[in-house]
Write a structure and sequence with these properties.
Number of strands: 0
Structural class: mainly alpha
Number of helices: 4
Oligomer: single chain
């Protein structure tokens, strides 16, 4: 998986969790939970959607490693088959 594929998967997953989300004003280093006002259930749903789309599961121990768009994309790229 490359950067573009990872971002597409993230965009698609976020569209399910936060319908109508516009990511254009969000920096790659912004905390997704804070910027998009995601509660714990929303965040888990996001990770489940990404697992369905990419086959990459994020264990709870790694939640702090996927807080931003950049971190999440890098995580998906590093763990995809």
């Amino acid at each position: 998986m490359d950067q573009l594929q990872a971002r597409r998967a993230i965009d698609e997953a976020l569209a399910v969790v936060v319908p109508g989300v516009v990511l254009e004003g969000i920096s790659g280093g912004d905390d997704l939970r804070a910027v998009l006002d995601l509660d714990s259930l929303d965040f888990l749903t996001l990770l489940e959607q990404l697992a369905d789309l990419t086959g990459v599961e994020v264990p709870e121990a790694d939640y702090n490693r996927v807080a931003t768009l950049e971190q999440l994309a890098s995580y998906l790229m590093s763990r995809s088959a």
